[in-house]
Amino acid sequence: MSINNRITQQQDVTQLCIQCAVLLMQYGAETTLVEQLSTRLGLALGMDSVDSSISANAIVLSTMYQNHCLTITRKNLDSSINMHMITELQHLIILAEHKMLDENDFKKRLQHLKPLHYPKPLLIFMVGLSCSCFCWLASGSVGASIITLVISAIAMFSRIALAQAKVNPIINFCITAFIATSLCGLTIHYIQIDTPSVAMASCILLLVPGFPLINAISDMFKGHVNTGVARWTVATLLTLSTCIGVVMAIGLWDLQGW
């Protein structure tokens, strides 16, 4: 293989490795998984070694091929969590490891990957139903569970609408928490039900940043402290903004349910 062809091949493989790493980070994979999968892809496509440095907003990846080192840096932009994309990327990398895809086939398959999105009405209903189930499990009454279902669905609709309008997630969570608490508190004020406090607490459970918190703890336990702290900080800010929205609603409407 000529030097030019060797360099071109290394550039293509390095681009694919870092593109996969960025996609994995954007869609919510933990840092260790990103590091492992990008390394496995590079080795499967013929590189001698692959090293990466991952931070909260950038990825630096280097490949070594026939004593020639190539390093690429890419900025990481946050996207919504989507496990379908992570699973599909893992599947493609496994196919490359089994020599069922070369770099050209892998690139074509990668370009056609699209995140799976459930229909919005179904998503809104299922989120409302899950919050209602939590209310029931927390010994909430039937009336409280029904109110939680309706209010949580409205809150999820608001959250999706704000996200589509490109509102900052921190502001989004604050507004959504304000809407959910206000609607639930005012409804309970006019409709007397048992366990009103359970309903008010359950209607904002859709704003709990569970996935970022789990990833943050996992990253810190596995040695990626910088990324873990960054994710923990984002999750903490989202939780704080939710609390601010709840407090604003309670103060404005003088709600007593909590």
Distance between the amino and carboxyl termini: 72 Å
Structural class assignment: mainly alpha
Shape: elongated
Uncertain segments are none
Helix content: 55-70%
Biggest beta sheet attributes: 3 strands, antiparallel
Topology order in helix (H) and strand (E) letters = HHEEEHHHHHHHH
Tally of domains:
2
Number of strands: 3
Total helical segments: 10
Rg for CA atoms: 23 Å
Give the oligomeric state.
single chain
**How are the strands of the largest sheet arranged?**
1-2-3
Mean pLDDT: 93
Q: How large a portion of the residues is in β-strands, by DSSP E?
A: 5-15%
Structure overview:
With 258 residues, the chain is mainly alpha-helical. The chain is built from 10 helices and 3 strands. It has 2 domains: 3-111, no CATH class; 120-253, no CATH class. It has helices spanning 3-26, 31-44, 83-97, 103-111, 120-137, 142-164, 169-190, 196-202, 210-221, 225-253; strands at residues 49-54, 58-65, 68-75. It has a 3-stranded antiparallel β-sheet with strand order 1-2-3, covered by helices on one side. Helix 3 runs antiparallel to helix 4 (103-111), helix 5 (120-137) packs antiparallel against helix 6 and helix 5 runs antiparallel to helix 8 (196-202).
